[in-house]
Each structure stands twice: as C-alpha cells, then as structure tokens.
Amino acid sequence: MARKAPTIRDVALRAGVSVATASNVVNGNRPVGEESRSKVLEAVAALGYRLNRAASSLRGARSRLIGMVVPDIANVFFGELVRDVEELAEKDGYDLLLVTTSEDPAIERRRIEALVSRRIDGLLVVPSRDDTVAALLNGPDGAFLPPTVLIDRGDPSPGLDTVAADCGAGGYAATRHLIGLGHRDVAVLAHTTQLKNITARVDGYRRALRDCGLDGRERICVGGHSLDTLRGAVELELHRADPPTAIFALTNISALAAIKAARGLGLDIPGDVSIIGFDDFDWMLALRPYLTTVAQPIGDFAACSWRRLIDRINGEGEPPGLRIELPCILKVRESTGPARMRLKTAAAP
Amino acid sequence: MARKAPTIRDVALRAGVSVATASNVVNGNRPVGEESRSKVLEAVAALGYRLNRAASSLRGARSRLIGMVVPDIANVFFGELVRDVEELAEKDGYDLLLVTTSEDPAIERRRIEALVSRRIDGLLVVPSRDDTVAALLNGPDGAFLPPTVLIDRGDPSPGLDTVAADCGAGGYAATRHLIGLGHRDVAVLAHTTQLKNITARVDGYRRALRDCGLDGRERICVGGHSLDTLRGAVELELHRADPPTAIFALTNISALAAIKAARGLGLDIPGDVSIIGFDDFDWMLALRPYLTTVAQPIGDFAACSWRRLIDRINGEGEPPGLRIELPCILKVRESTGPARMRLKTAAAP
DNA sequence: TTGAAAGCGCTAACAC
DNA sequence: GTGTTAGCGCTTTCAA
C-alpha cells in the first residue's frame, strides 16, 4: 500500500532503455525496435507500471477524457444514451466524465466549465436549452470548448454538430395513426415548448391535423419537467367539457403522466382515451395496456455522435456545423384504439 | 478560439504577486493578505483564469476526481444511484468518472485500473461479484486503490466499506406478505445466486417459509441477467404441473420478466399469480396492476456512501471495513392478492 | 505574509 | 531506432 507507483523512468531503467523509448512503447507513438519493445513490455509487467494520464495530458498529449452532459441520468432515455456512448468510448480508449444539469442552464454552464478545466478532448451534450452551448462557444469569455457534439437537442450552429431524431416525422406519424383511428380531438402533452425537438413534434402533429382537415383543433398542454406537474396538466385537460379522445405524450415521462392521469380519473385506456408515447423502454411492454409509442433510435444517437466526435478530435471528416437527423419508428401496440363518439364526462374528483 | 488559456503565472503577473500567492488565493490553502487577495481575484476574473487540474493533481494535490463503477447505467436502479451521487459530488467540488462493467469482472478490472491511472481520489463501486474489488485491493499487483466504498453488493473486507440494504429483512417481509395472503407455493426469481445481496433475499424468503411451517416448499428460479432469459426461467416454472401461485422477483428487471411471462401465458395478475418485485420506480405505479414491491432506499445509499467516502479521503471517521445496512420498505399495491386454491393449468403456447 | 525555486511524470523536439 | 533534454501548469518546501 505504501509503495510508490512506478514511473516511466523506473520502467526505462529496468529495461535498460531511455525514457523516450519506453514512452514510445507504452503509447505506440513511434516505431521501436523489437528487442527494446519486448524488454520494455517485460519491465512494465514486472513493475505493474501504469501510465499517469494527468502527467501526459499536462505535457500536451490527449487527455483521452470526454465530457458527457445530460439533464438527468436517472431518466432511462439518457441512461441508455450514456450506456451506449460509454461502451463506444471504452473501445476507443476514452473515459467519460459524466455530469448532470437538472435541466438548469446555470448549472449546465458551471458543469461544462468544470469539464473544460479537466482538459477534456471532446464534449457530448444534451443541452438544457437549444442555445446554451452555442452561447458558451461564442461567449465573451471566449470559452474554450473542445470539439463538441450536441445530442437530441440544440440549434444548428456554426461550430457545433447536432445528432437528433426527425421529430417532425415522428410527431406526424403518431398523429396520423390517431386520426386514422377516428380521433378528432387529440391533445398533445409537452413538458416544455422551449425546446425545438419538442416543438418539431408539435409541428408534425399540426401538419397531420392540417392534412386531415382538422385545423384549429389543436390542443397543446404544457406540463413542466416533473411527473406530477405533467399529470396535473393532463387532468386539467381531461376535466374540460369536451375532453380529448386521445393524448399524444411527447416524452416517456409525459406518457407515464398521461397514463396516471387517465387512471386516476377512472378512464379506460384505450376505451375512453387513447395514449401514445415517445421513446421505447422495457416497461412499456410489460404492464397493460402495452403502450403505443414513437421510438427514437438511441443506439444510433450514440454511434453517430461518437463517430462524429472522434473525427472532429482527429481533425478528420467534414468541418463542424453538421446536423444529422435519424428516423423514428412508430410502434403500434394496445394503448391506442378507435375513438369513441362521445367520451363520458370525467367525474369530478 | 486560438487564445491560449491563461495560467497561474499570467494571473500572478497581472496581479503583481508571486505565483505562490496567486495559487494560495485560488485554492485557499494558506492565508493571504487582504490586498494581494483582491488583486489576484481581480486578475482571475479579468483573464478568465481556470485552474488546470491535470497540473495540480500531477503536483500531488487532490485530483478531485471520483471513479464510479456500475454494472449498467441504463438500469434505473443504477441510474438513480449515479444521479444522487453526482449531485452530492458536485456540491463538494468533485467530478465523476463513470464506468460501466456489463457485470463482467474482467471488464470491471480493466475499467478500475483505467480509473486508478487517472489518479482518482476515491472510488465508488457496485461490483460485478462480491469479491472482485477485495481481490484487486489485496492483489499481487498491490493495485493501488484509493479509498473505496462498495454499494449494494460486496463482501465485508478489511480495507473496504460497504453500503447496502438489509436484504434479508426485505426478503422476509415480502414472503410473509405473500404467505399472509394464503400463498403456499411461492417461487423466487433471482438473476443469479452468486451475489450475497441476492442470496440474502433468498434467505429471508426461506426464513419466512420456515417460520410458517412451509419448509421444503422452496422454489428458486435462476434466470441470468437479461430480461429474456429471466422470462424464460419464469415460463418454465409456470409450466410445471404444480405452478406457483406467487412469484417474488428479486430485482426490478426480474419483476418485469415475471410480469411478461405471466402475460404471455394469459395469466391474470394477481388473480392467477401474485407478483411482488424489488425496487420502486415510476413505471410500477402507472400501468396496471400497480406493482407490489420491496423498495430500497437508493437516496440513502448515495448519501451514506458519499459521506463515508469523503471522510475516508479526508482521513476522518472510523477506519475502513465498515458495513452499513439500510432498511427496505414493503409497498403493498395491486399485483399481490389472495391465493387461489387451485391455479388453472397454464395452456401450452 | 510573501517569493524563489524545485520538481510531479510525462511527451515532443531535437540530436545522434 | 534511440537517447537527451526542456518544459507542460501547478503546489510546496524553504527562506526571507
């Protein structure tokens, strides 16, 4: 426990070579003779030598550290994203510095600055607002961001790449599905209208209504980030004189909220209200009714953003500013069904 | 973008003091005169100076980096744990290096070594086996682990602290609940029997059976880590000539698997089979039937392990080797009900 | 209370 | 292909 960790110098000494050679063997930067190489390797093994990355990154080399920023790691959506990214990162020899923002731009800013002071090689962020990272990039500070890729959210911006789903198409498909089932009163449940990926879903919904001659029948509920406030918003909508016959929930948490609200009011799903969600997780396929949903390709988010990030770090590929949109898939299950002609009035609580 | 980041030297220069003084102001290690202090602070602000942690940790100071190791960050249980820990960490000025093991000891070992080579100040791990970290700590390598706290799993071991739930009591309570409902054929669904926290739940189950004179009626299914294999194990059990009337699923994923298996066989919950799960997440309270479950205090896991880790890092508190057990809470909901006298035979698929 | 100076372990020139 | 050396930015003796 007390033994000091061996340094590259110890390795070189034991192998009878110079530190430069030892270093070159360890991180394969330049070719090394066969004999020296094996002697160094032997010394590394014998001494249990482990590279001190703090030192190497100080010296100017890559830190092999990637910062990852998500609003809430306990949300399965971000959980899966981080898991997939971490797997990719480990394959490429990077470690992940994980940071959480609680959807708060001030915290986000502080956390990103902390990451930058760690000399991260790249940054992957699901921003709390569409413009926060661009603001940082071009801020008065001249904040020194490494190659950065935004995921799921964020405006296109010169220095930034974005990987996201084609939310417009997703919203459109979901709404068409509902209209096809005979629904004419479809409410949308959003947690916010500040995020373009959410408003794109709403736009898809609007477009579908319009295409079907249902203009002016829009019902948009905004419920905030928490399950409880979202639920409250749905209850309000369901208590109206003319409640919707279907609810399109724009996130997985919103879907949970819509379901709980309907349950709480004693409404049958999909008998009284159809519900369609966003994202696709295991629980949606377990308890009844199985949830109809618009699935986003999380694995592809991870793969595309990682590829792009590494290219940028290596100075390869196209210059920054790309936007990559991936398709969503509508999964029709049990929570959506034919519209009732007249929905029974929800009893007052 | 091209401007080089200012160093402590730049700050000292602009403030007209020595680098030592500047350093002392920045991280408050030693008292500094009022005048110097304000000049330094001014310079820091003006230059937008940010401490280079790679350099300071190289020089021997704390890295303020904590390694966190979990089997799968996409599992909500670990997701919540990491979220809670991250929040605590940020408050104390630490960053989290997150690493995932896929329940594989070899990967775990490799990933922990990567963390150690980052000179982390402390390590929080949910190990893939109870003895992996202890092996690392006492290994021939003399692997140089910083203060380490195990969470949820892990044998008590001299150099290691452990924070976990009182799984024996949890298993006991769940089983008593079922027996109280008249069940005499209760199957337990475990993903593994290699982990003590799981076998403790099984022991609680056994103890409850014994206390009720149901010795010898144990049914223990082991289903592996994936939802599909777990489900297969349950189906097998449910297809027996004398299927169980209740299933006690030992993790949240097992619960999902049990539910899907029952559904697939057309069994009503809890009419045909009662199901009780472990852990408590939002989805369990949304779709029907609401799941009866044994909740673990994840927030307390985070708080206790963090407190302990920080104390160890600061050399305070008791010497390592502690085991802290936190109580579980039984939440009775809809998925458990009275036992049927005779369960209808499950139709072959 | 402050400053000067010595490295922490490593990599990148640059020489051989 | 290999060795020598000069720092990277910082904290920390040690002296003043």
Question: What key attributes describe this structure?
Answer:
DNA-binding, 349 residues, 12 strands, 15% strand, alpha/beta, six-stranded mixed beta sheet, disordered C terminus, homodimer
Quick recap:
Chain A has 349 residues and is an alpha/beta fold. The first copy, chain A, has helices at residues 8-15, 19-27, 34-47, 53-58, 76-91, 105-116, 132-138, 167-180, 196-211, 227-238, 252-264, 298-313, and strands at residues 65-70, 95-100, 122-125, 148-151, 161-165, 186-190, 219-222, 246-249, 274-278, 292-295, 323-326, 329-331. Residues 343-349 of chain A have low confidence and may be disordered.
Give a verbal description of the structure.
The structure is a homodimer of 349-residue chains. The first copy, chain A, has 349 residues and is of the alpha/beta class. Chain A has 12 helices and 12 strands. In chain A, strands 2-1-3-4-5-11 form a 6-stranded parallel sheet, with helices on both faces. A 6-stranded mixed sheet of chain A has the order 7-6-8-9-10-12, sandwiched between helices. The longest helix of chain A has 16 residues, at 76-91. The first copy, chain A, is elongated and about 85 Å long. The first copy, chain A, binds a DNA duplex (16 and 16 nucleotides) through residues 7-9, 17-21, 23-24, 27, 29-33, 36, 51-61.
